[in-house]
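FIELD: query
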Amino acid sequence: MKAATKSTGTLSFSASPKVFILSLIICLFAFQENIQAKKKPHWVKQRPNDPAYYLGIGMAPKTDSEFNYVQEARNKALKEMSSEIKVTVSSNSVLHQFENNFEFREEYESKVQTSVAETLEGYEVETWEDKKEYWVMTRLSKERYKRMRQMKLDKAKTLATAYYMDAQKAIAQNNAFSALTYLGKSVVAIKDHLEEDLTHRTVDGTYNVGAEIFRTIQDVFHRIELAPMKSTYYIQFSKQLEVPIKVKASFYDNQGEVRPLSNFPLKFEFTKGEGLLSSQSSTDRDGLAKVAVTRLISKRKMQEIQASFDFSHILTQEPGEEIIKVLKVFFPVKVMPTANIGLEVQKSTAYLEMSEVVFGDKSQQGPFSNTIKTELNENFFTFTNNKEEADFFVTVSSDFVSGEERKGQGYSVFLVFANFNIAIVDAKTNVEIFSDGVNSVRGMRPGNYEYALKDARIKALEAFRKQVVPRLEQVDM
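FIELD: result
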């Protein structure tokens, strides 16, 4: 007969093996947690204070995705560390050149502060974790950061200066486009350092790279002169045409002599009116650039084309949005050379017949019809009194009808309705090519019918411009 086993406070091997293993696992977990708790670094318990370092601490609760919580903690630490790095604008900063562009200055300074975290490098990283949390501490020596920042600044100034010297050589060779291209590359080289002191020392002396680039860009533009070969071109309106436009570009060299400016890219665009132009052009060896009006869309009598420097050619590679913003500040549109070319459209000749009825009586003066005649003359036709000379016959009729009088308390509101129609007939074929109009346009004013009539005329003219003119522009005349 077996003796009874005395129960004690310790684990007995006579217990079930499963119970023993389970108890052992529990003990191991408790032991591991105790070790981790003891190894918790001091920076998790309390933020260190080290004046020689920029510090950042981030914590993220553990989730199912290890990458997410590790990245979250690291980003928090970097953001906190970068917030300790104060960005100051140097008194020798090129930003002071842009006193009139406060929006750019504020946007740039804000971007520099927020982008510090993205450009940090050379920092140390420590991590600690338990079952629930993941901690990251980043640490960067202030002295090391200062050295790295200075190295980047010196490299940027050296590269920008090299491009700047290439630009000076191009200016001496009267090659304005190459000079502007090199100056654009100089701007890109210093784009991340506009708030810093860009003073650069060379064997020839000391100068501010950013300020000198900005000054030289404006100097190059001031030396360029664009002049149209003809100030005004007379064009017979047609949907299909080919009208060559020529502009001559000149450059004042270092001795003040005027030279033909070759290989200079220009863009041409309508500043008044609307039409289609052939592909953009660069100047040839004689300084001439050519573009052709291939179609007029607007039927305005007086239109205008402007030739100006094609800024898109500054960089051969597609620049990012931020680079373009910086370049546009260094290359202000207001200093770029321009030339304006007038287009006077020789419109088709038309014979006009007008009829205006007001409250049942034919108007002798026809104020509304005369306004329509002026609109048509400015945009579509040249009118003639000789029916035999006309290319088209135009009939304009309008009818203004009195409506009801609406009485209120101590006043009355009068209504007038306007009806308008225009028809165009081809004089050669006697075929109607256009007919349109507006009906029941309501004018309404207190006082009397004459006030309401004026309101009806104004609104009928607005309806003509909005509804009829766009359709009229689609007609080939």
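FIELD: remark
The chain has four domains: 43-141, 145-222, 224-319+334-346, 348-472.
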